[in-house]
Design a protein that fits this description.
- The chain is built from three helices and eleven strands; from the N terminus they run βαββαββββαββββ.
- Strands 1, 2, 3, 4, 5, 6, 7, 8, 9, 10 and 11 form an eleven-stranded antiparallel β-sheet that branches.
- The chain has one domain (3-21, 37-192).
- The protein is globular and about 40 Å long.
- By secondary structure, the protein is of the alpha+beta class.
């Protein structure tokens, strides 16, 4: 299984507004500025050979965004207890859900938003739930990819596109850099994203 790895310094991740808190810029929107439910819809394009370019409709609902205080707590947990410790904590948290048409919705455990190029970036993280057949067939290493990472890039009207990495491993390397290792060769593309008004 080929893999894709993104290595981000902690400083860079501050500006992504995902697992860390950006305090150096006055143009950064705090998560407390966002209140009320937000709902987005889009079409997920499955790019694997087996899927044959099939699409499915997604509804992403965000009930609330993860606070800066909680983000700092998660960083400490990731550093001291590793990704498994982070997973155990996040499994008890619900910030929203993602629902493919015709399937049971799945919980979103972490949600962050920040201004970006006249619009904003929304980063979401959810824990993966392994089906029995997948667990039985997968190797111990493949089960290390315990998270799903989703990013939406939106304009000021809430329209845009995004992508989803269904299997993501998150950890700090020996140099203190945050590593997101993606299982597989390509993300699931999310096209035609619109925010419900």
């Amino acid at each position: 299984m080929r893999k894709r790895t993104m290595i981000l310094s902690l400083c860079m991740f501050l500006c992504l507004g995902f697992l860390t808190v950006c305090t150096s810029s006055t143009n950064v929107e705090t998560q407390a500025d966002k209140s009320g439910q937000e709902v987005f819809t889009g079409n997920a394009l499955l790019t694997t050979t087996a899927a044959g370019g099939a699409t499915t409709r997604l509804t992403i609902t965000i009930e609330e965004y993860t606070s800066d205080e909680d983000i700092m707590k998660y960083i400490d947990i990731l550093k001291t207890e590793g990704p498994e410790g982070l997973r155990k904590v996040l499994e008890k948290v619900q910030k929203g859900w993602i629902a493919p048409t015709g399937k049971v919705r799945d919980t979103v455990n972490l949600a962050r938003s920040r201004p970006f190029e006249g619009g904003r970036l929304i980063n979401l993280l959810k824990t993966r739930h392994f089906k029995f057949i997948e667990f039985a067939r997968s190797t111990p290493r493949s089960r290390e990819y315990e998270f799903t990472f989703i990013q939406l890039k939106l304009d000021e009207e809430g329209n845009g596109e995004g992508y989803m990495f269904a299997g993501t491993k998150i950890e700090f390397d020996k140099e203190g850099k945050l590593v997101l290792e993606q299982r597989g060769t390509a993300p699931i593309l999310i096209r035609g994203v619109n925010q419900r008004k």
